[in-house]
From TrEMBL:
SUPFAM superfamilies in UniProt: cAMP-binding domain-like, Winged helix' DNA-binding domain
Organism the protein comes from: Colwellia demingiae
PROSITE patterns: HTH_CRP_2
GO CC annotations on file: cytosol
One of the record's GO molecular function terms: DNA binding
Domain (HTH crp-type): residue spans on this chain: 180-253
Alphabetically ordered keywords of this record: DNA-binding, Transcription, Transcription regulation
Name of this protein: Cyclic nucleotide-binding domain-containing protein
InterPro entries found in the cross-reference section: cNMP-bd_dom, cNMP-bd_dom_sf, Env_Response_Regulators, HTH_CRP, RmlC-like_jellyroll, WH-like_DNA-bd_sf, WH_DNA-bd_sf
Organism domain of life: Bacteria
Amino acid sequence: MTLSSKTTKKNATQHKHPRYVDCDNCSMQAICQPIGSDNQAIDLTNNYLTRRVEVSTEQSSSLPLNQSTDAILFEQAKPLTAIFAVCSGTFKLCQKNDEGVERIVGFRFPGELMAEDALFLETYNYSAVALGDNSVCEVFVDSLSACSQLAPELQQNLIQLLTKQSYEQQRNAQAITGKKSADCLLAAFLLNICQRNAKHSGNETTIELTISRQDIACFLGMRRETLSRLLSKFQHEQLISLNGKQLTLLSLNHLKQLSNQ
């Protein structure tokens, strides 16, 4: 895996790229803007923020997974150095238990945070693995802390950011927990990821699904064969359409009814 900053902060501000999530729709926005009033605004972000760092998909020798195109952004149990916001692409979050068994504990999409829980733990609680060519904004924690000492408003903005993130993750977890059947679980999952991506794309019915079926099955706790059967069933019932990596939800009402059963 390699990280490279291909745009400076100035260029990132002046030239919007449709590939990237808009800053106004990003969870990191609270600490990425100048603080103070319009007449006396202070921009400290150059001290702790690197925008739009490209995460390449060169094979990493440390990657413990069976997908050579994946790249690790940060690894579980390593000391915290930075927190991240996804600018583009999708990340999967992988966590090993004490026995070394790995499971997928979540996914992150454009505008969402990663590693914010490590601010308390001081080590990363999971590994973040890029699925394809992605990019992130990177906030260096020590530098952010130093700036927060000088500007208490920045510290308040960080608290607001973490509180909002906690609320959002609780909502995402509630969306797919407690489902009575695999059909309900899959419907809830597809609705959830499309709704989350809509904050970036503006389209809550279509998503480029870079997550493999194996990863989806692992996250949902079902066999891959079961997932494939359900996806075929949903297509036959005209609930969804799958064209390569493009997933389209054809019947939102029916899927919502199914997810609430």
